[in-house]
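[step 3/7] fold_predict: job queued, chain A
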Amino acid sequence: MYVYAYVVAALTCLAAATPRPSSTTTPPTIAEVQVVNEVESFLADPHYLDNDQIGQLFERITKDYPYLAQSYTIGRSIKDRPLHALALNAPARDAGSGDLLRPLVKLVANIQGDETLGRQIVLYMAEYLASKFETDTEVQRLLNTTEIHFLPSCNPDGFAAAKEGSCESLPNYVGRGNAAGVDLNRDFPDRLEQSHVNQLRAQSRQPETAALVEWIVSKPFVLSANFHGGAVVTSYPYDNSIAHNDCCEESLTPDDRVFKQLAHSYADNHAIMRGGNNCNDSFAGGITNGANWYELSGGMQDFNYAFTNCLELTIELSCCKYPAASSLPIEWANNKRPLLELLKQAHIGIKGLVHDASGFPIADANVVVSGLEDKPMRTSKRGEYWRLLTPGIYSVQATAFGYEPSQAQKLHVTNENAEALRVDFKLLPLEASFGGNYRKLKVERAEPAEHLKELYEGFLTPTKFEHHNYESMQSYLRNLSASYPTLTRVYSIGKSVQGRDLWVMEIASAPGVHVPGVPEFKYVANMHGNEVVGKEMLLLLSKYMLERYGNDERITRLVNSTRMHFLYSMNPDGYEASHEGDRAGGKGRSNANDVDLNRNFPDQYGTDKFNRVTEPEVAALMNWTLSLPFVLSANLHGGSLVANYPYDDNENDFNDPFARLRDASISGRKMNPTEDNALFRHLALVYSRAHPSMHLGKPCELFKNELFHEGITNGAQWYSVTGGMQDWNYVRAGCLEITIEMGCDKFPLAKDLPQYWRDNREPMLQFIEQVHHGVHGFVRSSIGTPIAGAVVGMDGGNHSSYSGTFGDYYKLALPGRHNITVLADGYAPLRVEVEVPSVEPFGMRLDVTVMRDDPQHWASANDFRIIENVVNTRYHTNAEVRGRLAELENQNAEIASFGYADNEFSRHFNYLKLTSNIAEPEEHKFKLLVVSSLFDTAVPLSREIMLNLVRHLIEGYKLQDATVVQLLKHSVIYFLPQEQQFAQVFNMYNANNSICDPVLPDELADRLLSPETESSRDLFLEFLRSERFDLMLTLSAGSSDVNYPKGDAILEKFALSIQRTEFNYSPLQCSSSTTRELHRESTDRVTNMLYKLYKLPMYTLGLSCCRMPAQARIASVWRTNIEKVKNFFALVQTGVTGFVQSDQGQPLREAYVRLLEHPFVYNVTRNAARFQLMLPKGLYGMEISAPNYESQMLKVQVRQGQIKDMGTIRLHAFKLIRGEVTEYNHRPSSSGPTTSIAGIVMDESNHPIRNAKVSVLLPANSKHLRNFTNSMGEYRLAAVPLGSVTLKVEAPRHFETTRELQLPLAGQLTENVVFHLKFNAQVFGLPRFLFIIVASVLIIVGVVICVLCAQFWFYRRHRGRMPYYNFSLLPQKGKEQFELDDDAGDDGETELFRSPIKRGMTIQPYFDEDQLEHILHTDDDEDDEVEAAHSPELEDIDDSGDEIVMLHSHNRRQR
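[step 4/7] structure written:
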């Protein structure tokens, strides 16, 4: 700085010594001296410029250098501060080419408001370049070849809140985020998020981010630098990785070498950065990959690279985020040269033009470099491209739709010249070198001859009719998209269970963006994997529309005026499991988890096992549907031929499985129409009547009983579909959807597809055209500002549409007169009468201008003129809240009581109790509890809403408003304004009033869930247990949803009635965060805990996205939620009440009431035995029971807004009938008048017994009268004679019983005849235990006998196979008888050892000749060989005459 001062002084002295020139002479260099003096001015008094001063500076530069500079703004911040920008660009030397091929570079800073050094460096560089242009050749060369844009502050609101000298962010990051507390460098579309998620987040994107996105996309920037603070390093993409690790994992782009060169060009010229060791961090060479440093999603530098052609660096300039202004000259000296060197990098690599044969530029052409194919550069509208490259040899090619790819050119890039190497491409049309009909026709747009159109089934090219599996479908869509890139966009909305993408093709004149005034339409097919016709029809329809665009006026008009989305296969996993030829089977119907996707959506009437857990395909479709403002939709199915419209189920279908069966006639089903029933019927008829056979209503061969008049049906009247998609679209997403059954066969043969196409082509087109029928337009304020989220209702209906981001809305309607109602937050309601034409175009445009409303007028109409609730709203301290509640008690002592330090509970929790006649007994009243919030961080807002509510009720009671009077008459309401950690949260707000979601540890919800004992937690839970509240309401933030205990149909109906208001405000699209997800999870856990432990249903109402919005927003939150809070209190106005007494008139204080088909039991009050139940309207079965008394089963019809008084119900004491049949001697009654008997049969536990037989035992001539109980145990007997009648009840596994009745009155139904059957534990007349013992003994004995018999048989069989040996000692009689051999013993005896001739022989003392002859001549075949061996010996013995000893066999035949 001092050197500059000396130079200026010397030049000034030189100027004083120089003679004054004449008027005709050229001005000397004194003018240049003045410029140098101007350059030094920004360093003379270093200080930070605020946003207004930046605007003034840019205006001055534009005024001083009009040929160089142009100031402009790109948008505004939340607090309406302009985002100032400046463009510097020297006039073109060649007037013919202008600034063609001049690269655009941008310098951006201060996206995080408390990182301010870059903001001032950008300003210094702008001043430096503008002022030095006339004198500095380097600057001249730079501005002559480069267009540089300066955006010094992306976050002026954050800068205004930051504090100079703060090297770290202030507590709670004050100044880092914008006025809403959002970090803008986390708010950009992210490359790793699916497109529908980015679209969903776009609805809540911050205005600063939206302005930056629009600016970046609208200009063909080549190079960019984003200046930050808090470190000294240059970071390059990517900032996040697929694994999403916190750090230390590089995530490199295809241009990693280029990025490193760019980063080094800055770091190597920075005196401090190039060392790499600064701010307690170490970076090699002063550069780092963003993801390797730390993970960051939604950042600006990744957005630049992933979504545009721009390469951006993030440059951290100093360790201190907001350094003192005195250090600015030093920082400028450190960063001037690096910044100039970086700007020169815009001229490395190659650049050029892409034009056609006639020399016209081709926009959106791709320039592809070998090795960098993953990142092609697209040409600008003028056909320009720039491709930054490091030195090397490359092969480069240009491609464009409708043109032949260029020849690849080999280039040697050296980067030694001052500008990039220029390479131009000229592309030739496809017809010049391609002979194929398909692509040639796409360029020529020629219409084939009529006979060819008939031959091609309406297509312009030959088309195959075949089934497409997942892979072939992907290939088909890729080919279509590549052929028509300007009309299509293929994207995935999610993945299936097995990881297959759910592909959607968008067909529109401007795919990829929502065009204001253009409605969104969708077709969804193949939801059931084996119902494939819809999938094939959509593939054919896509090809048909794309081919005929530009040739067919109807198709061209439809594509230009409609944004169409086709989801071809919602269940690709199921499709892969199905098979061709399936007519009505179920294989492949469900997804890979075996879940029917059309039973898996949230249902307005309940939850069951089919939709309790959301499948990934269903979750993806719901997110997609909510991310876009769909107007009309159709779900394409198969298996029948009919157009089906909502609703698909009735209120009680979750409890009636028979209603879900398709095999019954539809004539007996109950219809459940929507309030738009006439419109839905019209939409269904459009499809049916355009179909050649659907409108005939003929049944399919497999379902002969299904007759559909005109080919349409109400879903619930056909068969119940709980958890269906079309009902969810209508109820939750606001989109009108019908279900088209396209044919009787689910998976027809491929040869049948041409006929399906002929039948469905025209209906599908006509149905899309219906999206334009009705009323559409824009909602704007009186000054022309588009209003998003405005409610557009028609004819007083509850089903509303909402205006989009640009204020556009669409409301389908039938021709005729309609009343349109528009309501927007902060604006006066507007009602307009319109007439929809009955001829083309069947629609009309209605632009609506709404006026800012007067809060006092709103208060007069909706809030009993309580101005305090809507004017000058603010957060009150604990002392102020206590003071207000005490004041309300003093002024309204007859209805209000304030509890403060009266007992231990009130010392921790102050409360206000409201009820009419505060001193009267409360037993006959409902008890309601309203807790400001279970989260301390949401207490400030919810407490203010609670105070408004208290004032509303008290003022309404004073004015004797009927609704409030009835509420306080029938209920006692406790209000608990939680205050334990309010001071900490309030201090956060005071330190930074733009804070949105303050964070605190150990909130009340966390303490309630903790198993550890804590005084406030224990007192609160004891309070809930002792007071026995009927309902509880808490207030929260983060969404506009109502949280409640899931699984009970009654509680779900309550939640729906809470949300249903006259004007349903657009659901809040709150961005997700970790804190909000944790709060949502804690709310669910506390809700379930209180319901299970205390039978207390807790409803949590989401008030706003922010837990602590600005104080002025409290009034808006109150106005948008007052109707929902009123609806909660209105629940006490509908239900039943009564008393339970014995037949002697004594209160049965142990009695209880149970609703059939519902889990919980309701006890009567402790004194008067009174029961009172809040119930939504409907028909209920009630069981009133008491110990030792007969239960009564009653039916009650509950009507909206009425409490049904059932009077006194008397229960009769009973003795348990043991099952013995008692004989009664009664004479049969004579024929004459008859009556009817109705009742119920139950077991000892008061559970209904189904299929029990109830018959008349006496009189004998009526024994033919009998009936059976239904699933509820109910029975009815008709034509029963008067007089004494004996009934007999029999049921399987129960003792039968009888009962005598007196029937005195003819024609009068005798109701509530209850039988209790005792369980029959006997078997064959024996007690079950004794029968088990006897049976066990018999079984054991039988087993033992069987074992013994088996052993005996085995022994006999084994013995018969063993050889038999005989040992004998014979006395010595003489030598004449036996000739002794050498083996004779000393005693003269000879021991003979002989084997028997036959097995099994026994010794016989003698035998005769006949026996011997029989032995010798046996004919046993099996012993032939043995006999042959012994016969010689026998013969010898026989001839000798010696005495023979033989063995005789009794059983000679071998077994």
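[step 5/7] annotate
The first strand starts at residue 69 and ends at 76.
The two ends are 130 Å apart (CA to CA).
exit 0
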